[in-house]
Amino acid sequence: MTLPGAADPGGRSGSGDPSGSGGPRDLSGPGDLSGPGDPDPGPGPAAPFLYPDPPLRELAGRALALTASGRAVLGVVGEPGAGKSTVADALLAEVERLRPGVAAAVSMDGFHLAQRVVDRMGKAATKGAIDTFDAHGFVALLRRTREETRQPVWWPEFRREIEEPVAGAVEVAPRHRLVIVDGNFLLAQDPPWDRVRGLLTEAWFLDADPAARRRRLAARYVRYGFAPERARAKTEGVDEDTSRAIRRGAGAADLVLREPRGRAG
User: Fold this and answer.
1) Percent helix, strand and coil across the chain, each rounded to 5?
2) Of residues 29 and 81, which shows the higher confidence score?
3) What is d(CA 152, CA 72) in angstroms, rounded to the nearest whole number?
């Protein structure tokens, strides 16, 4: 289950284009904050399709255990098309089933620069690359989320209907002991992204099947209106460059989830 060069597991690309997740998710409600222990509610839902080992319920238990001494921030990291938002949503739903009200999910996607800014920078063709995000803003809000546990912390989200980030869209409330954050660059080593790892309680890396990941990504672009040729060019061009950069940070992950190879996807 380990990725070459990655940490032993024992221990959403979000863009103005469709290369990542939409926005933050919050399935939480009022709940007991006494700790990570919980009654056994019976069998859970099926594990996420792409990453079946370990089972979703085991992952949820590991995530909840991180909250034993206070708020935990769990990073879900992967390449464009790896399924970050899918995994984050599934994990949030399972945690919510086990302990309602203790978790929320947010995304790095909300820190995309506005389209007009990207256009002015001349980076429209590479939107979703690491230099088209507000990295300092992301680091600052992540730090606030770790430290400010007695008042709400509001996160932006990326809205696909307008293809822009929207500020103050999702609340991380004091009751949220677990905050799941997904993103491409949570393990990036360039400043200021290199500060992110120290703000995460744990980081989980999604080791996607490369061929299946590219197929999923190209198909997603087509669903969002790209011509097949343009979808293929973006998938094999800027997204591959981004993927290589993301994988360089995989060694800093606490857990690596591996997608089985050779399946249709």
Assistant:
1) 40, 20, 45
2) 81
3) 15
User: If 0-12 CB within 10 Å is exposed, 13-18 middle and 19+ buried, where does residue 37 land?
Assistant: exposed
Q: In what order do the strands lie in the sheet with 72-78?
A: 103-107, 178-183, 72-78, 202-207, 255-258
| CA nearest to 185, candidates 259, 264, 132 | 132
Could you give the CA distance from residue 55 to residue 46 in angstroms, rounded to a whole number? 8
Quick one: 33 exposed, middle or buried, by C-beta within 10 A (0-12, 13-18, 19+)?
Answer: middle
For 138, 148, 169, 193, the CA distances from 144, given in Å and listed in that order, are: 10, 5, 16, 16
Question: Residue 100: is the preceding peptide bond cis (ω within 30°)?
Answer: no
SS3 77: strand
pTM listed for this prediction: 0.81
Is the predicted pLDDT of residue 160 greater than 70, yes or no?
Answer: yes
pLDDT of residue 47: 38
Match 């993927």 to its residue by tokens: 243
Please check the confidence at residue 40 and state whether its pLDDT lies above 50: no
Element at 178 (helix H, strand E): strand 178-183
